[in-house]
Write a structure and sequence with these properties.
- This protein has one domain.
- Helix content is 73%, strand content 0%.
- The protein is built from 10 helices and no strands.
- The chain starts with a helix and ends with a helix.
């Protein structure tokens, strides 16, 4: 039950961060907090979104297979989630404390708890809502928007994504579904490319833009 309790805390914290995502950037600016405080807040938000998304994948991974009596680990994990009212309400499509719901992350399909194995598989398929491409885009966009064009803040967000992933591994027995590792790799790649872009000097950008224009003229 410890893993489920930790998951509940992660979802609770992430719900507050998510519902205040857009206004959060403004409040940080208006309050003029120290750089350390701002980066700490961004780091924690990244940790929580990472844990939440990986926990969702674990649930979908369990739902995507027909459970047999022999698969006791999966059965126990599923029962732990079902017996946790707040987590089950969230997966059922209800809004929990802080305004967090499936709809708040853009999901408009059938409640996760009502999915058949085939429907769960479809959600985590290549182009599914919780598949590698869309999840990595959603998570990377979340932290990039949160950090803005602040390189140090984005680096801190990246650390949070890594920390959240590692915590999710511990929560779920040390091993996540394969899709989680592929999604994490793609998410970090997107964040790294944004950091690289922000670190470029104006001169480098001008040179690259000039090279692009020259190639277009030659064509």
């Amino acid at each position: 039950m410890e893993a489920v309790d930790l998951k509940t805390k992660a979802l609770d914290t992430y719900s507050n961060n998510f519902s205040n995502q857009k206004q959060g950037g403004k409040s940080l600016s208006n309050a003029n907090p120290s750089e350390e405080q701002k980066n700490s807040s961004i780091h924690n938000s990244a940790v929580n979104v990472s844990i939440s998304m990986e926990s969702m994948k674990v649930f979908l991974n369990i739902k995507s297979v027909e459970l047999s009596q022999a698969n006791t680990n999966a059965q126990n994990a599923l029962m732990n989630i079902i017996n946790n009212t707040e987590i089950y309400d969230f997966l059922s499509g209800k809004e929990i404390d802080g305004g967090f719901s499936l709809a708040s992350i853009g999901y408009e399909g059938k409640p996760i708890t009502e999915l058949s194995p085939d429907e769960a598989k479809e959600l985590v398929a290549d182009e599914g809502f919780f598949g590698i491409n869309k999840t990595s885009q959603r998570v990377s966009s979340f932290v990039i928007d949160l950090a803005g064009n602040d390189v140090e803040a984005l680096k801190e967000a990246r650390k949070g994504i890594v920390q959240g992933f590692e915590e999710a591994e511990k929560m779920w027995g040390g091993k996540l579904p394969d899709i989680s590792y592929e999604t994490q790799e793609k998410t970090l790649d997107m964040i790294d490319k944004k950091i690289e872009e922000l670190l470029k000097t104006d001169t480098q950008k001008e040179l690259e833009e000039g090279d692009t224009s020259k190639k277009e003229e030659d064509q």
